[in-house]
């Protein structure tokens, strides 16, 4: 009897130790608000600069269906489009619009990472998960909701820069917008202040689920990986977990991202509007004219981009956060 009791105590104590270790692995490094903002901003800017060529290819494929006929769309390929950019615009054109990308990504990533930590802590406090962290399903729900709210906050605050970035990246031979300030002024002149927020509805519909899945999948994968293989390099774990999270989120939210890009280019450079209806009606228009596959036009370069992009951003963020903690 005494032996059984001692065994029970040991097993219970071992379970408590395992839970304590798991909680320590799941808890983020405690750093100040400024360090959070710097880590998130630098991580986003660095990741976007590394994957700028693939980002531009994705945007060009996404908007092809707006002003191209069916024959042109059938001939489109990543290699053909990349060769055209080099031949007609030069190699540096792969980074066209990258300055505005960085100008957008610095505040966007800073706000999204910082807001995620704040929303997550608030939700844990409300639900009582800050004191008891044994519920995996509750943790997942908090991460999903926190990521979604962070995405909505960051996207709304930085949207005009995102719209300008899309329009600069979508330009090929004709340079209608000559830079960030010129684009902002021209859009306000041609389309009014509301023109800076074209496609915001589709953006919020897409970015909320996208960041929710990104943050949730990343933290869940990383926590599980660290528990199962605690000796693996934290840099490798962050890179791999971020890449897998990016694939999942991109697959789910890509149609919303495509509609967002096309709504952002509505009326650009003085062209006549293509989609005169709202966000949901635009989905129907694309399916009727290009088929269901039209909603995933450009998904291949998106996959090529998102695997290193999301992996790099989480890896850089965790590394900088660790250095500053």
TrEMBL record:
Signal sequence region: none
Bilayer disposition of the protein: Multi-pass membrane protein
Alphabetical list of Pfam families matching this protein: Mito_carr
Species lineage: Eukaryota, Viridiplantae, Streptophyta, Embryophyta, Tracheophyta
Protein name: Mitochondrial substrate carrier family protein B-like isoform X1
Keywords (A to Z) from UniProt: Membrane, Repeat, Transmembrane, Transport
Cellular compartment(s): Membrane
Organism: Canna indica
Family listed: Belongs to the mitochondrial carrier (TC 2.A.29) family.
Record GO biological process: organic anion transport; organophosphate ester transport; transmembrane transport
GO cellular component terms, semicolon-separated: membrane
Database matches in InterPro entries: MCP (IPR002067), MCP_dom_sf (IPR023395), MCP_transmembrane (IPR018108)
Solcar repeats: 31-122, 138-224, 233-323
PROSITE patterns: SOLCAR
């Amino acid at each position: 009897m005494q032996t059984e009791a001692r065994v029970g105590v040991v097993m219970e104590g071992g379970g408590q130790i395992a839970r304590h270790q798991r909680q320590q692995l799941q808890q983020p490094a405690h750093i100040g608000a400024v360090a959070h903002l710097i880590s998130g901003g630098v991580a986003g800017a660095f990741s976007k600069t590394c994957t700028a060529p693939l980002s531009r290819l994705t945007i060009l494929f996404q908007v092809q269906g707006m002003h191209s006929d069916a024959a042109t769309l059938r001939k489109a390929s990543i290699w053909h489009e990349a060769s055209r950019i080099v031949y007609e615009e030069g190699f540096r054109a792969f980074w066209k619009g990258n300055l505005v990308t960085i100008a957008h990504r610095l505040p966007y990533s800073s706000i999204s990472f910082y807001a995620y930590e704040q929303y997550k802590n608030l939700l844990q406090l409300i639900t009582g998960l800050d004191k008891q962290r044994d519920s995996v399903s509750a943790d997942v729900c908090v991460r999903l909701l926190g990521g979604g709210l962070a995405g909505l906050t960051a996207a709304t605050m930085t949207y005009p820069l995102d719209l300008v970035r899309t329009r600069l990246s979508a330009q090929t031979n004709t340079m209608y917008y000559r830079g960030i300030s010129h684009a902002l002024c021209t859009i306000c002149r041609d389309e009014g202040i509301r023109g800076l927020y074209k496609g915001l509805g589709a953006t919020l519909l897409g970015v909320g689920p996208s960041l929710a899945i990104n943050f949730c999948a990343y933290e869940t994968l990383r926590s599980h990986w660290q528990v199962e293989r605690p000796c693996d390099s934290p840099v490798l774990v962050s890179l791999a977990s971020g890449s897998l999270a990016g694939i999942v989120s991109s697959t789910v939210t890509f149609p919303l991202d495509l509609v967002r890009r096309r709504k952002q280019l509505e009326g650009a450079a003085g062209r006549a509007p293509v989609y005169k209806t709202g966000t949901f009606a635009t989905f129907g228009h694309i399916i009727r004219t290009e088929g269901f596959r039209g909603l995933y036009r450009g998904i291949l370069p998106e996959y090529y981009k998102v695997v290193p992009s999301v992996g790099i951003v989480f890896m850089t963020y965790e590394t900088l956060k660790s250095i500053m903690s």
